[in-house]
Specification:
four-stranded antiparallel beta sheet, 16 helices
Length: 476
């Protein structure tokens, strides 16, 4: 199986081959922890989680790093407003971020470095840039001199004029060039700061990632991922710093995900249209949110709306239904988690092909539904069970189907299960007595409490409804 990925730097789809097949290196820009993260922050966490799973399946050895930015002016302002220390606030929201993305099925990174734990590495790297003529100290600041990098702009494909016109360039008298950006800045007494050769201060945002990558992954890495809003200036500046400090290629594959659109507008805190992951988890299971995010190709804009979540829930019902139909068989208690150690040969080929094609999750989900349909068409119990195992293996790659089917359908029931079974037995007797009015009444009473009944050739089964729906009649 080949993996092809769209490389932002080249602007084209390329066949992925790591520098070292036994140690694939990948870095994802994590959150700046000053508040609860919104659902847009879940896009890179979820889609690149699928990529990490795919890479581990193919290569085995993957070192995946996702950072935490815990020193930032927004954190400083939030801590001042809340009355907490900066460290307390950052710790609280870093913990909340981990809880939120884990609820979406995102696996933990191998390393989760924090900027404040790498001040020594940051100071050392800034010193190297000064020594190499790529940075200079001025008025307590240290700035990267953009004209010193002849390839600056090659990642975002912007001309120098575009950079000035399209970016919020800080004009300061100590800058040699308006495009120069901060590597180190002075801290006043109330702000966090560390001693350095340039005085007490704190790092700029861009240098943090460059230093953490070098510390944990090396000077040249296979993949750097993040939102497309980071391409410029953050990732452009990272590339400039690291390339100039090391004199070699920094990132071989740059991957960028698209944004979520809310009411036709990009979701952002500054626009006040933020929907947090935490808030959504109070309304929907994490697996529904994950499925909804995978419905769009990672590089495209995804319109976030209630209809998308309704579609995700219904689609998950279909996949779990294909597993539940074999509930009496040997796969009854299996979940996708049981396939974490599955080999490449055990995975469904159609799902692999889709994900190998620039992480095409919509096509991979379509392949999963094709497998689910095949389960229903299977000519024997053995064939159905084999197809269900394929479905579960594909589920592991996508981070779905992690709950036993029966448990999935019954999650969130507001009634005691023994009481539900007693009412079903009562309804069964009413139907045997041809008292259809009583049978209809029992069904309606259960539906009013969020319990849906389904009559099958093997008997009546129930599920906790996502919402109260019309139930039909037992006398039809």
């Amino acid at each position: 199986m080949d993996i092809h990925l769209h490389n932002t730097r080249s602007g084209r789809r390329e066949r992925f081959e790591p520098l070292d097949p036994d140690r694939v290196t990948m870095y994802l820009c994590g959150p700046t922890v000053y508040n609860l993260v919104h659902i847009g922050n879940a896009v890179p966490a979820v889609c690149f989680d699928v990529l990490v799973r795919l890479l581990r399946l193919k290569y085995g050895g993957v070192r995946f790093v996702r950072n935490i930015t815990d020193v930032d002016d927004k954190i400083n302002a939030a801590a001042l407003a809340s009355g907490e220390s900066i460290a307390e606030l950052a710790d609280r929201y870093a913990d909340a971020y981990r809880e939120d993305v884990r609820a979406l099925g995102v696996l933990d990174p191998d390393v989760e470095p924090r900027a404040t734990e790498h001040i020594g590495e940051i100071v050392a790297m800034i010193g190297e840039l000064i020594d190499g003529g790529h940075a200079y100290a001025a008025s307590g600041h240290v700035l990267f001199h953009v004209p010193s990098d002849p390839n600056y702009g090659s990642l975002s494909h912007r001309s120098l004029k575009d950079m000035i016109d399209g970016a919020r360039v800080e004009v300061a008298p100590y800058k040699r060039d308006p495009k120069d950006f901060v590597l180190w800045k002075p801290s006043t007494p109330e702000l966090p700061g560390w001693e350095s050769p340039w005085g007490r201060g704190r790092p700029g945002w861009h240098i943090e990632c460059s230093a953490m990558i070098r510390q944990h992954l090396g000077r040249t890495i296979d993949i750097h991922a993040g939102g497309n809003d980071l391409t410029f200036p953050h990732h452009e500046n990272e590339q400039a710093q690291s390339t100039c400090a090391h004199g070699m290629e920094f990132v071989r594959f740059w991957l960028h995900n698209g944004m979520l659109s809310f009411g036709g507008t990009k979701m952002s805190k500054s626009l006040g249209n933020v929907v947090t992951i935490r808030g959504l988890l109070g309304q929907y299971p994490g697996e529904v949110l994950r499925y909804a995010l995978l419905l769009g190709h990672y590089r495209q804009t995804l319109q976030w709306e209630d209809r998308l979540l309704v579609q995700a829930r219904a689609s998950l019902d279909t996949l779990y239904g294909a597993l539940r139909d074999g509930d009496e068989g040997q796969n009854a208690s299996l979940t996708a988690l049981d396939f974490a150690d599955a080999t490449l040969e055990e995975m469904p080929e159609t799902v692999l092909q889709a994900l190998g094609d620039d992480l095409n999750t919509p096509r991979a989900l379509a392949a999963m539904h094709s497998l689910a349909a095949d389960v229903h068409r299977a000519g024997s119990a053995d064939e159905a069970r084999a197809l269900q195992r394929q479905l579960l293996a594909g589920g592991w790659l996508l981070g779905l189907l992690t709950t036993p089917a029966q448990e999935y359908f019954r999650a969130g029931a507001g009634m005691d299960e023994a009481e539900i079974e007693r009412r079903i037995q009562e309804r069964r007797q009413a139907r045997a007595d041809r008292d259809f009015a009583r049978a209809d009444a029992i069904r309606d009473e259960l539906a009013a409490q969020g319990i849906e009944l389904e009559d099958t050739r093997d008997g009546t089964r129930w599920r906790a409804a996502a919402s109260t729906q019309s139930s039909g009649s037992d006398s039809d």
